[in-house]
Design a protein that fits this description.
Order of helices and strands: EHEEHEEHEEEEHEHEHEHEHEHEE
Number of helices: 9
Number of domains: 3
CATH class of the largest domain: Alpha Beta
Strand order of the largest sheet: 12-11-10-13-14-16-15
Number of strands: 16
CATH topology of the largest domain: Rossmann fold
């Protein structure tokens, strides 16, 4: 993208926020123009698209930094949430060395947290700060959406970015949407930004998630579309209108809530952890159990969207619901 130099910082920030800036590539400057490397066509008034060559910036990885310290670790899981890195390790004795290597090779990371697993009814990570600032709150950006998150108080996964976009693209114009386990409202914000829904109801029983969801709705100026509701979805669903789409992203417990969703939704975006060798069997079981509740369910797209353990995976299903 070719940009006048007086607007360079403004446009750079927009490209970063929208997730279209090409990473690890050097920006070019020629006279009064600045050339930003981008991933796809972008339309910004007063700027133009062009083509050219850009220098690739080779950055040292945290693996390189660990090797320099004589440390080799077989399995490291890393999530970047805003300027916080969340790591999971099999060998936790090396956590501080790994954290220092991450901060050394990622200048934008200010805090590294060790993830000790998900706990309590709210499915929140138990985290320990092992390097950097003690503050676990950050602002995470995806596709031009800003979300305030505290990784120690609410559950959030940056790995679901493409899944959130996939679901958002399935929402029809003027649709009513219910997110039964909304968290800080990432699915809701994607739908509000990239679809044209009539109304979105974001439910969560974690009071911290509800507070952040409300902040995020205001920060992204979607308060006219998204209503955040604190409570257990089983108690809340009865007072909400019928929905065109229902999102059920609570993969360990979604099956407990499915009867409530069947009563309210035409399309259910359903997530569950299941044995990877028994996915088809589990889909048939869900269809059978729904029929026993009086609903005809067609399992359309069924996708594995992540691994959970050597034998289990996280599965996304798009269920179409009809009354008998």
């Amino acid at each position: 993208m070719i940009v006048p130099k007086e607007r360079a910082e403004e446009i750079r920030q927009k490209l970063v926020d929208d997730g279209v800036m090409l990473e690890h590539t050097k920006v070019r400057r020629e006279g009064d123009l600045v050339y930003f490397p981008v991933k796809r066509q972008v339309h910004i008034e007063g700027c133009a698209m062009g083509s050219g060559e850009f220098e690739i910036i080779r950055r040292k990885s945290y693996d390189d930094a660990l090797r320099e310290r004589g440390i080799h670790i077989d399995s490291i899981s890393l999530d970047l949430i805003g300027d916080i890195a969340v790591i999971r390790l099999q060998e936790e004795s090396c956590a501080k060395e790994v954290a220092q290597a991450i901060m050394e090779t990622n200048p934008h990371v200010r805090t590294v947290c060790l993830d000790r697993g998900v706990e309590d009814d709210f499915r929140v990570r138990k985290v320990e700060v092992v390097a950097g600032e003690r503050n676990t709150e950050t602002i995470h950006r995806e596709h031009g959406i800003r979300m305030k998150v505290d990784v120690a108080r609410v559950y959030f996964s940056p790995r679901l970015s493409s899944e959130r976009m996939r679901v958002a693209k399935k929402i029809e114009h003027n649709a009513t949407v219910i997110d039964m386990f909304a968290g800080v409202a990432p699915f809701c914000l994607y739908i509000a930004k990239f679809s044209h829904p009539k109304k979105i109801y974001a439910i969560d029983k974690n009071p911290h998630a509800v507070r952040y969801a409300r902040e995020n709705v205001l920060m992204n100026k979607k308060e006219d579309i998204i209503e955040v509701i604190e409570g257990d979805a089983r108690d809340v669903m009865g007072r909400l209108p019928q929905a065109d789409h229902i999102i059920m992203n609570l993969p360990h417990q979604s099956h407990e809530y499915l009867p409530h969703a069947l009563q309210k939704g035409k399309h259910i975006h359903y997530y569950e952890i299941m044995e990877k060798e028994r996915i088809e069997e589990r889909v048939r079981q869900i269809v059978k159990e729904s029929a026993q509740e009086g609903y005809s369910v067609n399992a359309g797209e069924v996708r594995v969207i992540g691994s959970y353990s050597p034998s289990k995976v996280k599965v996304a299903m798009d269920l179409e619901v009809k009354h008998f």
